[in-house]
Design brief:
Blueprint lengths: L1 E4 L5 H11 L3 E6 L5 E6 L2 H11 L7 E5 L12 E3 L4
Parallel strand pairs: 2-5
Antiparallel strand pairs: 1-4, 2-3
């Protein structure tokens, strides 16, 4: 979960582009409470790089924090943007 000013600033689009560039699979979506939620799967070094970049996100974003937790592996083949939950 990404907290801060992360909706309406192209954070989801940035996430998709960045994750794909790093060879990651997963998804990203807005949450009704103003956060952005993402599931990221791939090699550890690529995930670490993604998380470092996600601390800033796109230029208009103001990330306050990222809550991370392990999740069950899903059978995913790409990185996509999903509907708001």
């Amino acid at each position: 979960m990404i907290h801060g000013r992360v909706q309406g600033v192209w954070y989801r689009g940035w996430t998709v582009a960045t994750a794909r560039e790093l060879g990651l699979v997963g998804w990203v979506r807005n949450r009704m409470d103003g956060r952005v939620e993402a599931l990221v799967q791939g090699e550890g070094a690529a995930i670490d790089r993604f998380l470092a970049l996600a601390q800033d996100g796109p230029p208009a974003a103001q990330v306050v924090g990222i809550d991370m937790q392990d999740a069950l592996v899903e059978d995913l083949h790409a990185f996509e943007q999903r509907a708001t939950a």
